[in-house]
């Protein structure tokens, strides 16, 4: 209101003046982020998930279908993280956005190992392959990733800083709990229903058999 009155006073004093007085304060720099925070969130999360899709698809042996299932699980983790942020009164800002991007990277650890073990398993049906993946890789994911991260996060609970309490302890604790539950429980169920039916081991065995058959025919 004050800036508007000053602007009108200057324009009345000089009719040719287009000068406009606007309020400014140091905290305005931090509040400006909220003008584009949702757009920035959508762009950063989309680019991160697409990068994970390409990386997992290539590292899994050009298996982009399994990579898609991994990314689908990660998207579910992100959606649950938004729900946890609402429950714990964590607002979406630059700090929480960085944590959400980090959530995508951390979630790969919970999902990629299970999916990779499923893709190389040669146990027949999808259900048996999912059981094999959980039996042979589940303990490593639980003890090597989940427990170690929880022990490190618990230390943040004793911090006197509100920043560490809200944006790191609460968010990281939810990342570990939600990521572990999705990677060890939800992902094997998804793989047992709609996972790839043709494994890398079967593909390699069939390629080797075709190669040997081709050589035998040439020798004969």
Give a short summary of the structure.
Keywords: Cholesterol metabolism, Disulfide bond, Glycoprotein, Lipid metabolism, Membrane, Signal, Steroid metabolism, Sterol metabolism, Transmembrane, Transmembrane helix, Transport. Helix content is 78%, strand content 0%.
How would you describe the overall organization of this protein?
This protein is an all-alpha fold and 220 residues long. It folds into two domains: 1-35, no CATH class; 37-203, Multidrug efflux transporter AcrB transmembrane fold, CATH 1.20.1640.10. Helix content is 78%, strand content 0%. The chain contains eight helices and no strands. The protein is elongated, with a radius of gyration of 26 Å. It is a multi-pass membrane protein. It comes from Brachionus plicatilis (Marine rotifer). GO terms for molecular function: cholesterol binding. It is found in: Endomembrane system.
